[in-house]
Amino acid sequence: MRILVTGGAGFIGSNLTKKLIDRGDEVVIVDNFNDYYDPQLKEDRIKKFLKGYKFKLYRGDIRDEKFLEKIFKKEKIDKVVHLAAMAGVRYALQNPNLYYEVNVLGTQNMLNMAVKYKIKNFVYASSSSVYGNNKKLPFSETDSVDNPISPYAASKKANELQAHVYSHVYKLPTTGLRFFTVYGPWGRPDMALFLFTDAIIKGETINVYNRGKMSRNFTYVDDIASGIMTVLDKNAAYDIVNIGGDKEEKLTRFIEVIEQNVGKKAKKKLLPMQPGDVPATVADIKKLRKLGWKPTTRIEQGIENFVAWYKEYYKI
Ligand SMILES: NC(=O)c1ccc[n+]([C@@H]2O[C@H](COP(=O)([O-])OP(=O)(O)OC[C@H]3O[C@@H](n4cnc5c(N)ncnc54)[C@H](O)[C@@H]3O)[C@@H](O)[C@H]2O)c1
Questions:
Q1: Residue 133 maps to which CATH number?
Q2: Which domain holds residue 94?
């Protein structure tokens, strides 16, 4: 299969690209290498992490329809994994229009192309953030997600609605994956694991929101990639699926494991809850399990892998 991966220089996209090529798929990457975080990390995912791997790379923006049209025309794409987006809840509150343009209009462009070029399956990144402040845990796909609490969450919910329209009207097979806090090597510098590891190594203070009373189903990036491939192969007519680790971890435990791996105690600054953030995201993953997927990596192993990568990459 020839798979177009948007956001392929990103954290999840680069990991997925590697696994797709390993199993014999061909990959075409689209990414604009924007500077939301250090673009050098994106360049290095392409140059170093994907070294020796053969794929096509297009540098450009999913907001640019002409640019996308050229690629679809030329590349004979079978399926799409659409991961390009402005991610990050906190930055969205400062830049709501940017999130709307990239996440909503950009996705609209991708859906238009998918229909026009008869794509066999369109898998895209939604997010656990669509569950907002829902009180019922674990979060299940059948729960109401009508109360997002950040522009980011609203954009992801919008993507699910956009996909529904295209599956219904044009019979485009679509699956939205609601990712739960993804972590692992080559991870994003704006996310907790990276920020905490970096600060602990440098002896700096870490900000611990909601005074540490947070919990997450952390999901290792390899498990995310295998989950994407699971739904990519199914070609569901229209689906929304949670993808998360199988253990609810307390933030305090997460920090403890980082400390053990770095070999240093964290200096913690306990802070109140951040606007737009949620105290607990716990995934009900029965649906994806039924499709044959299971998470395999616990935080003890995943964090060890991350810290090892971090030290090597930053030559510490
Ligand atoms: N990492 C997580 O925990 C998590 C959780 C929930 C959902 N998601 C979603 O998964 C997807 C991938 O996330 P990630 O963690 O790999 O983030 P990432 O920022 O590392 O990857 C996104 C990539 O998309 C590219 N991109 C952004 N805007 C673009 C545009 N206009 N045109 C072309 N390329 C563009 C970026 O340069 C980046 O390389 C995103 O849609 C994100 O919202 C991630």
A1: 3.40.50.720
A2: 2-186+218-244+283-295
Task: Give residue 103 CA to ligand 1 midpoint distance, Å.
Answer: 10
pLDDT in tens, 187-241: 999 999 999 999 999 999 999 999 999 999 999 999 999 999 999 999 999 999 9
pLDDT tens column, 271-288: 999 887 788 889 999 999
Name every residue whose Cβ is closer than 8 Å to that of residue 281 and which is 6 or more positions away in sequence: 128, 129, 131, 139, 180, 181, 215, 216, 217, 244
| % of the chain with per-residue pLDDT over 70 | 100
User: What is the total count of domains within the chain?
Assistant: 1
Q: Is the pTM of this model over 0.90?
A: yes
Alpha carbons 196 and 208: distance in angstroms, whole number:
9
Question: Ligand 1: residues whose CB is within 6 Å?
Answer: 7, 9-13, 30-34, 42, 61-63, 83-87, 102, 106, 125, 127, 179, 181-182, 188
